[in-house]
Each structure stands twice: as C-alpha cells, then as structure tokens.
Sequence to fold (353 residues):
Amino acid sequence: MTINAAIIGCGNISRFHLSGLEHAKVPVRWTCDLNPASAEAAARRCGATAITDWRRAIDDPAVGLIMVTTITPAHRDICLAAIARGKAVVCEKTLADSAETAWEITAAAQAAGTPFWTNYMKRYLPCVEKARELMPEIGPLIATHARTWQLWGDLWTKHPAEGFCHTPQDGTSGVKRNMGGAALHCCGSHIVDLVLHLIGRPYRVFADEHIPPGRDYDLRLSAVMQTRDRGSVLFEACAHALPHLGMSRDGWDEHIEINGVFGRLTIFTPTWDQGDRIGSLLVHEDGRTRTRTEHRFAPVSPFDLAVGHYVAWAERGVQGGQAVTTGYEADELIACLQRSARSGVAVEPAWRC
Ligand SMILES: NC(=O)c1ccc[n+]([C@@H]2O[C@H](COP(=O)([O-])OP(=O)(O)OC[C@H]3O[C@@H](n4cnc5c(N)ncnc54)[C@H](O)[C@@H]3O)[C@@H](O)[C@H]2O)c1
Fold:
C-alpha cells in the first residue's frame, strides 16, 4: 500500500526528511510551519499544500504518516494528536523536553497500537548494522568507550553576542529552546541512543558536566554508565574548538569502542548532516585470530536509510525496525545523566517499561 505523508516543521532538519520521502517515493500532501514562507518553500519542493496549522494535516484521512520535525518542545501536542487519529508517526529526536513527556507520548502510541518512531537515524548506518552483526564475535562485553565531540568553535572562552548559542540575560538560548540543550542533546543523544541500541540499558550512571557561567546549555557531559553484565560505558559528549580532530580530520570526533573478551569493535560515524558525503568505518580487531579488519562504507544519507525503513513499516501498519520506546529510553537516560551531573551523585534510572 502506498502511504501519503505530511511534514510538520519545515526548518533545518526537514530537508533530510523530504529527501527520505522522495527516495521512498512517498507523496507529501501537506507541509506545515508556523512560518508560511518555510512551509511554502518545502511545498514547492514536493508538490504539497503549505499550511500553518498542523491540525489540517492530521485531520486529513488520506494522510497515513506524519513526520514531526518541529522544535522539540512542540513535539508533544502534535504527536499525541496524530496518534489519537491513528496515524503512523516519525518524530525527530530528542522525542521530548523531559522523560515524563517522552513517556506520555510513548504510552499513548503503545495504547493506540499505532507505529511510532523517534528518528535516531544513526542506527541505520551500515557501520552500526555491521557492528550489531559482529557483536557475538567479540564475546562477553568488558568495557565500552563512547565519544562524541562536535566542532562548534570556541564557546569555551567566548560567549556569543547573538545567534543560536547566545543566552540572553534572563532569557533562553536558541539551542536550549529548540533542542533542550547543547552537547548532550545535539550530538550526545545519538550516542546515548547507540549505547542503548548496542550495549543495553545501564542500571546506574554517574555524570559530570560543564555549563559556562551566564549560559543555559552544556558544552560537555562526561559519564560512567554501569550495566549489570556488559561492563561499564565511559561516555563523553563535547562541543569543542579543534578543527583537525576525528576520522576525517574535520573536527567531528565520534566513535564507539566496544571491548569484548575475544575482540574489539570500533565504530566511526560521520557528522549527522554529512553522511551522504563522508563514509563510515567499522574496525574489527579479533583477539583469537590476531587480525584487524577495516569495514569501510561508502557515503550514504542515514536519513534516507531511516525514512526508507519507517515508510516500509508504516505501509504495513506495524511497528518495526526499532521499538516504540526508543525515544523515551534516550530521554530517560539523558534526564538521569543531567540529574547526576547536577546533584553530584550516581543515579539509577527508574525505567518506566
Ligand atoms: N536527527 C538529527 O541529527 C537532528 C539534527 C538537528 C536537529 N534535530 C531535531 O530536529 C528538530 C527540529 O530542529 P531544526 O534544526 O530543524 O529546527 P528549526 O528551528 O530549524 O526548525 C523547526 C521548525 O519548526 C517550526 N515550528 C515550531 N513550532 C511549530 C508548530 N507548532 N507548528 C508548525 N511548525 C512549528 C519552526 O517555525 C521552524 O521552522 C528538533 O527536535 C531537533 O532536536 C535532529
């Protein structure tokens, strides 16, 4: 069955969703944004009708799939309304601005039985899928190191006077308002999700973060996440200023090193918006055969891959490819990491499912 889609939120990220829908050959009936010019620009690209009130798209019986690409605080009302109308929903990460709200949305989707995905699209990168396939080869897990350093220029010694990363006096920065935070929410949430995807849920976390004076967002969050039987995960999300770091020497330094009794897997992933330009890499070191194998993957947009999966499942009307709880789990873990960093004590997540 061919499904029709609507996109709600036509800002920065929406072009990747439009591309994914184009690749999947899914007609888009509505593009919606509070800013009519943004909705119209997106509509011109895909032949949709531009609107400013998302309720029109959700009320359209011909629409089966709603892509929620607004800023994070706006996700809740749109997701709940779309679920109540029985639509399949793809919501951008992070799912919500609190674990409570993420759970409210997830529980609604579970109760309604409607397919629901949070767009942690790095799960669909071939290097991640290959790592999952090779995990049994490395045996029982001992320790994981997960790093995501994102080149944001020098926010450490300079407080920008304007723009996304400016925190006005008695006001909120763009990065906090739109995404919930900086290092942990922007780049860190993908790696939080990959830790959950590859290693599983930690039972205890102990974190530490850096928020510069006068700002409302973090530049770094470091943590130890302890699992019951899969070792500890050392985690670090950081907005940094050094352009010559990382796999492509482009300042993007994101990798996950998973150590087992019999070997090591190291995943190197490209910047969230550069996957179709920069390939990914998985290194498999096998302690038993004493071999080191590099699996190099050609550039491919993780958005196209992810949206292709969502569409295939949505057309069948079933949840598939990832659990409905994916976005909630990341938000719960993010909340625990922040709680630990701000209280100075270890926190045990109280998983709600
Ligand atoms: N997957 C990733 O790697 C990734 C990367 C960047 C951003 N994101 C996520 O994507 C989402 C959007 O981020 P962005 O960078 O595109 O932000 P953006 O500010 O560029 O775009 C958001 C758009 O949503 C619109 N909007 C806000 N409230 C609305 C409402 N009630 N109805 C209709 N439109 C509304 C705004 O007018 C704006 O055009 C956020 O949740 C963010 O965390 C994900």
